[in-house]
Amino acid sequence: MMKKRLIACGVCLWTAFCMLEARNEKPAVYKDAKAPTEKRVEDLLLRMTMEEKVLQLSQYVAGRNTNANNIGEEVKNIPAEIGALLYYSTSPRLRNNIQKKAMEESRLGIPVLFGHDVIHGFRTVYPISIAQACSWNPALVEKACAMAAKEARLAGLDWTFSPMIDVARDPRWGRVSEGYGEDPYTNGVFAVASVKGYQGNNLADGEHIAACLKHYIGYGASEAGRDYVYTEISPQTLWDTYMLPYEMGVKAGAATLMSGFHDISGVPASANHYTMREVLKGRWRHDGFVVSDWGSIVQLISQGAAEDLKEASEKAIMAGVDMDMMSRGYDKYLKELVGEGKVPMEIVDDAVRRILRLKFRLGLFENPYIRETTEKERFLQPEDIKIAEKLAEESFVLLKNKEKRLPLAADTKVAVIGPLGKNRWNLLGSWTAHGKDGDVVGIYDGLKLELKDPSQLLYAKGCDFDGKDESGFAEAVATAGKADVILLCLGEKRNWSGENASRASIALPKIQEKLAMELKKTGKPIVLILSNGRPLELCRLEPVCDAIVEIWQPGIAGGKPLAGILTGRINPSGKLPITFPYATGQIPIYYNRRQSARPHQGKYQDLTIEPLYEFGHGLSYTTFEYGDLKASATQLKRGDKLSVEVAVTNTGDRDGAETVHWFITDPYSTITRPVKELKYFEKQTIRAGETRTFRFEVDLLRDLGFIDGDGKRFLEKGTYYVQVKDKKVKLELID
Ligand code: NOJ
């Protein structure tokens, strides 16, 4: 009897509790900003229907139609329960209207996540990533990313599809412009810098956005430099070359990753259980989410990995792709797949959890709307332009300076010639988000501001980027004849690199080379300014030029620092993070190749095997002398501490910045190692006549050790070398 009464009492209490809940008298835990994130996630997940979960895992697009009159139409077409949108607009109002629908018209009021490709700036466009790496200044890159995050968040974004950290060794591939070069560690360091810059310390502070490491993993190995194709990556290469930047980015707290389009040795990146579920989510315990690339789930069908969209969706979610970008497979088939027992409910719940977690971390439940500021308030702030300018300055690389042709003497008359001389649009580079050419200070513009006497500056276009029209040559030659020096501005259009922009030859089009040859005949010195998104084949141009400055695609603020370098106001300090082949036929060519069985043979019969400019190359207006390397110990045991130092003296007569690259060589080991591997770098400004010490704190396991084809790290006894330029110190690990 007593027991029955107790049960009845319990039931009554429970009913009362549920009624209170239903009447919303006690706020749901997920709505309580003070509750721990994980509790909020679990609470919300428990309330969600299958349909609501599936939509959380889907990403559509919005904001492409910029006509203000169509805002209503656009909002109508977006489901209130959608998880994320690829948001093309910069209108805070459109974003707020869409968000209002999600908050007020969906049953649970889950905010939408707005994402976009903010790759090298949002409106204040700064240099492309390959150029940023030339600065060897991660702190500056972090600042630039923070500024991009602020502009983006004020414009309505919560999430960027950046950084791209695909190690790339084939400059025919257009996307080399989007990453940080050929070296794993370099990509890793800039991954960390970008993640810190985008995300800051608090994603909910209204100034930061979630980062996305992409394209997980090995996309840079695209065969023959073509986009979207097969990649042949052995397990050893996967770990040696591609994993490190992702591991570093994940450890730095990257909120999301994007799975690639490509096939990794038979298992496409977007269906790869090993890389996503086992390594990323299992071993690295990443608690954020993986979004597919645009349509990379439906494309599993073209790749021959799935028979239809339903199977593709099953493979993708099982492998660990949490959000479907534009394949429309999850919203169509996930419910069915769960019903048929092909996809366990826990897998769906795990994916939903990851997405909700980020929304809570971004503070979207508390602050779903953004302030409707004016463009003037949110973009192109003077302090931001300064950052873009500084990064451009540090990313420029003085490739050649024969007989100190640069800097130019004060009264030099300069003939700016070439398709890039007055062109602004192409300096922006690919993925410029909302950059405008009207914001750009171009090459000619920068010189105009720098040179005191306007009569020092002449201009002729000479020719276009490509084509056969030589009708401008005569004017170019005549203009050159009136000047003391030719500033020849050649390079690539911005859409010649980036996604789906491969080139079979990395030489500049013949018309540009021909213009250079015609100008050479004038006998005037030629300073070549190059703007491009990939290393170029310069073997014909290099001999006719006295000096070469690589400015890549510097964004809006390249003109002034370039003028500063030309006149000597600024001392260049950039160094290459990627090899410049002598000719296209040498590709792939990169510094950290593995050792050869016959190092003195195996050459080409018809081409040198030496690159034109090697990894780390970059000149200064001053000179630096390196002392010998000093190791704190040369006989070591596991667990010992080791530091190696080098003194660098500025032996010239002006201040300059120098980057020291520290390499490790392991001449003999169970699994063969590359000829050398970058393990650390540091940049310091050194005054004229001053000596500064650079120090590398070596972690024996991390820096001398190596990994096998499943990521297991080893440290073997034997000989190692620490190397800086041509200086080496020999180490023995005796135990
Ligand atoms: C495809 C590109 O591969 C990827 O990098 C980009 O983030 C998405 N499209 C979204 O624009």
Automatic annotation (TrEMBL):
**Species the sequence originates in:** Bacteroides acidifaciens
Per the similarity annotation, which family is this? Answer: Belongs to the glycosyl hydrolase 3 family.
Name the UniProt key words of this record, in alphabetical order: Glycosidase, Hydrolase, Signal
Please list the reactions this protein catalyses: Hydrolysis of terminal, non-reducing beta-D-glucosyl residues with release of beta-D-glucose
Q: What is this protein called?
A: beta-glucosidase
Q: Read off the SUPFAM superfamilies from this record.
A: (Trans)glycosidases, Beta-D-glucan exohydrolase, C-terminal domain
What biological-process GO terms show up in the record? glucan catabolic process
- Taxonomy-wise, where does this protein's organism fall, top ranks first? Bacteria, Pseudomonadati, Bacteroidota, Bacteroidia, Bacteroidales
Which Gene3D superfamilies does its entry note?
Glycoside hydrolase family 3 C-terminal domain, Glycoside hydrolase, family 3, N-terminal domain, Immunoglobulins
Q: EC number(s) on record?
A: 3.2.1.21
Stored InterPro entries: Cellulose_Degrad_GH3, Fn3-like, GH, Glyco_hydro_3_AS, Glyco_hydro_3_C, Glyco_hydro_3_C_sf, Glyco_hydro_3_N, Glyco_hydro_3_N_sf
The chain positions of domain Fibronectin type III-like read 658-728
Under the heading Pfam families, the entry gives: Fn3-like, Glyco_hydro_3, Glyco_hydro_3_C
Q: Which residues form a coiled coil?
A: none
Recorded GO MF terms: beta-glucosidase activity
